[in-house]
Description:
By secondary structure, the chain is of the alpha/beta class. 27% of the residues lie in helices and 28% in strands.
Amino acid sequence: MNGKMKVAVMTNLMKIEFIEKEIPTPKANEVLVKIEHVGLCGSDLHYYEQGRIGDFIVKTPFVLGHEAGGTVVEVGTDVKHLKVGDRVALEPEKTCGHCEFCKTGRYNLCPDVEFFATPPIDGVFQEYVAHEADLCFKIPDTMDTMEAALIEPLAVGFHAAKQGGASVGQTAIVMGAGCIGLVTMLALRAMGVSQVYVIDVLKKRLAKALELGAAGVINGMNQDAVSEVMKITGCAGADLLIETAGTEITSRQTIQMAKKGATIVFVGYSKSGEITLPMSMALDKELTFKTIFRYRHIYPLAIDAVASGKINIKGIVTNIFDFDDIQNAMDISVKDKANVVKSVIKIGEK
Length: 350
């Protein structure tokens, strides 16, 4: 496909500008996707506001965005399983395929991974993207491309739930009711955990958690979260705890409110990169600690959960912005975290 496309480029901290680029040509194993919806991730906002996450430093101009859904408009010569008109969810990580981790199926740990909107790899705040066809997952007619874009964060939630060994009959606690906390709660419920309680300090996020099916919520601002969990569990503690907030206090609380023999999955990144935990208590309780890095082999599962109606993934969305309004979208999402749970950019629908 010949022609120009609009691209939203981060040119400085808190600054987005539009430029034009040539529409990319897909390689033999790629498809060209007309991007229709892109979710705003916390990492996008962090790069936009701070210019870095740990060792990943933005060098402007840089294109943000990695949660994408759209429609195939051109296919490479070797692509057989997709055709023009198919609507797809894009898994944003390309791996080497040859290292120890790729060969053992743990491709999310590949040291040579290229991930949309992780410096120096540009993201998908643009009208068209050429992407490896095997990383473009066709969605059924019961789904739309906004839901396709939201498969990416949902994959994180499912990976966390699976790492924690989620199962029927457990009592689970999710620390944090931001996007990742909410999709983790949804994933836990889809996997049969009916008693999922969510803890946060923001009223709107807790209300959203209840709306989406949490068994209950705890406001850590005006309640003693540990005491409340002990009341809920008859002083036994929770079976599974998933920490998505990334703070030291919430990380320490997961250990305090865990049942003996419980599993804790750490998902959230702390701002400092380091936290101090009450390890004596963890040892006494013989707790299992798990961590996650993105996800692997999750997209088909997540798509099926949404398509079958087990998960209302659109329910996490609080704000939708047009592509031309992306500067405002970024600013509002950064500055109004009390009210904005999840923003989506509408780049263009068929």
